[in-house]
Amino acid sequence: MKIGIVCYPTFGGSGVVATELGKALAAKGHQIHFITYKQPTRLDFFSENLYYHEVDIKSYPLFDHAPYELALASKMVNVVKYEELDLLHVHYAIPHASAAYMAKQILKKQGVIIPVVTTLHGTDITLVGKDPSYEPVVTFSINESDGVTAVSEDLKKSTLLHFDVNTHIEVIPNFIDLNRFKRQKKEHFKKAICPNDEKLMVHTSNFRKVKRVQDVIKVFYEVRKTIPSKLLLVGDGPERDKMERLCRELGTCEDVRFLGKLEAVEEVLSVADLFIMPSEKESFGLAALEAMACQVPILTSNVGGIPELNIDGETGFLCEVGDIDTMTEKAKFILADENLANFKNNALDRAKTFDVTAILPLYEDFYQKTINKT
Ligand code: GMT
């Protein structure tokens, strides 16, 4: 198939899923055309089946905000027409689904039929999308998509609850490439961070409010009182300064390191003992799956699609949002020498069920069905 993939080219989960999906499809022989405003972060190599089309966003003194959606729709029209695409797959509804609708209508007038698949990822539904300033367009563009997928049963449920959606939503979970995300031998790295054999806790995120990074630091502060440990924070975003201040206030600076946006996150995960994700909302939790693939147990909040990934008491624990005491108690339980190995093995076993080789055919079947019915 010739497939156009539209996504955010950034470090965010939806962009990562879209890029990895495109790469895996290309490896299977499909021709994949990425349409984004910047080269996607994980698309930094050559493959004969991968193409990249940059959206030109023209500025003009009249515009306070350049009309990205129009530039994107125009680019979609051209790529679909000249590359003779079979299908457009847009990731994250805002504004990709409505831009795709507009492109589809323009193409229809020109006698070109293009099926559109929209994948709902999370905050496009649970946070931003349901805001009245976007809701009518999001509802419309979901209903007008020829196929809709959501990354968890919970996200599907939320979509049906908050939007007047009258179309089928197929659940296709996030996936992982176990060839890349696996525990690597990085003893020298572990020794450098934990010279006295301390336990290592890791958190990765985009440091938005919804991730509750402050809970990571508070749990670490409590755990460190009895278990010698270190904390690595990977990623960057709006909450970073506040989090650095919190570390200073709690006096934990010497045991906490902010690593910023790291591409080779699997190297850090390879030496971790516990991954912590205390998010307020999380439709799936791709970062936690990446940790599990590297044999890291996960301590998470009990929200959204996370319980579909984290099996309480086996791969880690599920705790109520903001419940620092319980999170501390569970973190200590996992980190206890007699428990850790079991949790690590269970985490990897669970991650294996989300291997890309198992999930990719679900997308291929869904594309084919969508093309057939259009
Ligand atoms: O808000 C984010 O963390 C980024 C967001 C995105 O769409 O870029 O991530 C969402 O999509 C990921 C991939 O499907 C999911 O694994 C994340 O759970 C989800 N984030 C939230 O729901 C907060």
Automatic annotation (TrEMBL):
Molecular functions (GO terms): glycosyltransferase activity
Keyword terms: Transferase
Glycosyltransferase subfamily 4-like N-terminal domain span: 11-180
GO biological process, alphabetically ordered: bacillithiol biosynthetic process
Pfam family, one: Glyco_transf_4
InterPro entries: Glyco_trans_1, Glyco_trans_4-like_N, Glycosyltransferase_grp1, Thiol_BshA
UniProt cross-references to SUPFAM superfamilies, sorted A to Z: UDP-Glycosyltransferase/glycogen phosphorylase
Stretches assigned to the Glycosyl transferase family domain: 185-347
The UniProt record lists the keyword Transmembrane helix: no
Gene3D superfamilies on file: Glycogen Phosphorylase B
Coiled-coil annotated residue ranges, if any: none
Domain of life: Bacteria
Keyword Lipoprotein (UniProt): no
Protein name as annotated: Glycosyl transferase group 1
